Every structure is written in C-alpha cells, then in structure tokens.
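Fill-in record for Amino acid ABC transporter substrate-binding protein, PAAT family.
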Amino acid sequence: MLRKKGYLLILALIFVFSISTVAGAWWIFGSDEQATWDKVQAEGKLVVGMDAAYKPFEYQDKNGEIVGFDVDVLKEVAKKLDIKLDLQNTSFDGIIPGLQAKKYDLIMSAMTITEERKKAVNFSDPYFNAGQVIAAMGDNSSVKGVKDLEDKIVAVQLGTTGDLKVSEMEGVKEIKRFDTIPEAFIALQNGQVEAVVNDLPVTAAYIKEHPEVKIVGEPFTTEYYGIAFRKEDTELKEKINEALAELKQDGTYDEIYAKWFE
C-alpha cells in the first residue's frame, strides 16, 4: 500500500511538472505570432517567398540577382525594421503552402488580395493597385477613357481580366485576342487596333521601354496587391504595415514607384 501511494505520488508530481514545463515554455516563447517576429529579430533577417518571374515586380537580372518593385519596397521596409532580407525564389502555384509550411516568414510576390486567398492567409494593407488600364498610341489618340472604346477595335490578351472586362462592355466594335500581351501592343503600334486593355503594372513596364505608347485615364478596376502572412503572425503583419505606412508618408514609396513605372 505504501508503495502504491508512493507510486501515485510520483505520477502526480510528474504530471504537475509536465504542465508547468509546457506553461513555462509558452510563457517564454509566446504564441506563434510572437515567436515569428522574435525569430526575425533574433536572426536579424526576414525570409521572403516570391516567384521571381513577374517583371517588373520580381525577376532575375542578367547577373541572376532578384530585383524589381517589390524587392525595392522590401529593402526599404527592412531598413525601417533594422533587419536584412533573405529572398527565396519559389513557384507561385506552391507559394502559399510554402508559407504555411514555414519555409519563409511572409510572401511578397505581386499577389492580388482575394476573398479566396483570405481563407488561407492574412494580408497586409494594400500596397499596389494593379487594376485594368487602357493604353493608346500617343497623347493625341481619341481614346481617353472607357467610354471612348465604343466603336473601337480593342486588343487584349486571351483569358485575362482585360479580356473579361472588354467582353462585358457594350458598343466595342471588335475585340482582337492575342496569346501574349506583347503581341497586343505590337498590334497597337502597327495600327491594327486602337487600344489595349491590360493590367496596370505590366502595361507600365511595357511603356517604360516603348514611350510612344501611353496609358490613358485612370485604372477602371481595382485589384490590390498585398503581402501575405500566416494567420497567426499578427505582430509581424503589424510591423510590416507600420513600415509600409512610413514609406508612403515620407515619399520613399513614390520614389520607388517612379523608378519602375514612370
């Protein structure tokens, strides 16, 4: 009987010790979101997942270095947070599973904020409006906005948001669909069409190399890009949002935008 009591006492002590250890570990290391931000600070770096095949947001230059608009924004965010960057090039189709598997701390890869993606990740405040825009030849074009597409021949890339939006418009004379967006722009430059409808950033990147093409009017759809985080990483998201807000307030964001899109 004494042995049994002693055995039970030992089991009780082990149980109490185990609970105390678990509780102590939680107290020391905090919840998951606290641990991620602490890890970033302790390591002095932010590990970022991105698909470096989407110029001008993230792509590899001739030296193999990942560059682009997103990268420049990230560099300035890192300065604000006093940390370094570790960019991980990964395919876009597996980028969210990679985040959830903790291969990186966040995703910044020209990712549109959608309701479907919100089910899997949390997003930062929007940092880019990638809505649809209209491109025409020069400032003297008769096309100045959406209403001017009536009775016009309009080029789009097959299966894109631009294709969908123009298909919904009434009064467009003809829609010419191309397999790639450069083909649509070549048709515009050759006078085969009178306008191209496409997303803002890619259109802006094309215009940077072909200044005879102009964006007319403002984006007529709203498709915001955001930085993606694991659901539990609320503190990291707050830190990034604060840094993004500072970049917009002090003019740094505008300088980066002008570098890549004006």
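KEY FINDING: The two ends are 86 Å apart (CA to CA).
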